């Protein structure tokens, strides 16, 4: 087990190093002078030179890379050019809407996908199975921004049950803020449920015909314990994997939904940073999202130890 944990942890560190290197290279090879792009066309040569010196762009690339890695290890992602604050502070101020949006979206997706996927596998070939598979394919192909506009039109404009956009002001209670997240969470949850549903169905189909399932049934065990205790438990590892991947993708993929619903989250911050060419924010956001992606996958790997005893030996 120790070897398994060490191997996964080492892989996580290597992936983070590779991501940090790629982000560094992408920013440096982008067309144009980053300092000139940040300051705009009205900047004077003196202003550009001063910003280049401030960002360390006049130093050799290897020196810049070493300083960059050192800053990452100390938790320093630089300062935003336009917000006049550390990048970590800017990300922290925008983290709450993105965190709750991701959490609620994955909960909605899981609640939708798991029972339907299990029932679809159990009733394979039935009308319910065909209908659920068709709906899953439809949900997977629907653009999230289109579905967002539909739910806004129906539930916010016509019925008036939920706010059209926004996240509430500084004095808004947490309940009211969460109320603003219902429609975007449903939008992302429905779209994300398709992948989880298909993996749940496929994983259940792989185990329902195994010998131990037939043995449990031959002993007279009720069908519900057979499905939930034996079949679902042994089909859980690939399902957990896809849930973890979906959660990680939701963190980085909420940009469009946050923009449509006007949520002041990390996605909206990244869009603003791209429009302003605020490279420190773009660079820092990519690193944080990549780190969260890797950490979620590492946590899923650790759950394998709890769920499947075979992983421990």
- List segments where confidence is low: pLDDT < 50 over at least 5 consecutive residues: none
Average per-residue pLDDT, rounded, comes to 79
User: Could you give the count of β-strands?
Assistant: 0
Helical proportion? over 70%
The outline comes out as globular
**Biggest sheet features:** none
Q: Give the radius of gyration.
A: 24 Å
Kindly estimate the percentage of residues that lie in beta strands according to DSSP: under 5%
Specify the structural class: mainly alpha
What is the end-to-end distance?
7 Å
Order of helices and strands: HHHHHHHHHHHHHHHH
Instruction: Please give the count of helices.
Output: 16
Helices and strands in order, then pairings?
Layout: H1 2-29, H2 34-39, H3 45-55, H4 61-73, H5 87-122, H6 127-141, H7 144-158, H8 174-180, H9 182-208, H10 211-218, H11 223-234, H12 236-253, H13 255-261, H14 266-276, H15 279-307, H16 309-312
């Amino acid at each position: 087990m120790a070897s398994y944990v060490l191997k996964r942890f080492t892989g996580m560190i290597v992936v983070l190093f590779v991501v940090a290197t790629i982000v560094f290279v992408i920013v440096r090879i982008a067309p144009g002078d980053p300092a000139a792009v940040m300051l705009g066309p009205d900047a004077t040569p003196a202003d550009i030179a001063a910003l280049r010196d401030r960002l360390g762009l006049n130093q050799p690339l290897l020196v810049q890379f070493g300083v960059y890695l050192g800053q990452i290890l100390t938790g320093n992602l630089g300062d935003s050019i336009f917000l006049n604050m550390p990048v970590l502070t800017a990300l922290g101020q925008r983290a709450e809407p993105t965190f709750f949006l991701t959490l609620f979206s994955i909960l909605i997706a899981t609640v939708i996908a798991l029972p339907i996927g299990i029932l679809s596998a159990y009733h394979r070939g039935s009308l319910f199975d065909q209908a659920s598979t068709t709906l899953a394919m439809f949900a997977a192909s629907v653009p999230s921004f289109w579905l967002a506009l539909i739910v806004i039109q129906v539930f916010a404009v016509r019925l008036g049950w939920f706010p059209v956009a926004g996240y509430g002001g500084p004095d808004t209670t947490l309940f009211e803020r969460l109320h603003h997240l219902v429609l975007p969470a449903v939008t992302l949850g429905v779209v994300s449920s398709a992948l989880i549903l298909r993996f749940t169905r496929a994983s259940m189909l792989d185990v329902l015909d195994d010998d131990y399932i037939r043995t449990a049934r031959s002993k007279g065990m009720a069908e519900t314990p057979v499905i939930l205790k034996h079949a679902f438990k042994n089909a859980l590892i690939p399902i957990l994997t896809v849930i973890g991947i979906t959660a990680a993708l939701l963190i980085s993929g909420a940009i469009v939904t946050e923009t449509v619903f006007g949520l002041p989250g990390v996605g909206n911050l990244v869009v603003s940073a791209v429009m302003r060419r605020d490279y420190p924010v773009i660079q820092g956001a990519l690193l944080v999202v990549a780190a969260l992606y890797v950490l979620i996958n590492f946590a899923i790997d650790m759950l394998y130890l709890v769920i499947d005893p075979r992983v421990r030996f």
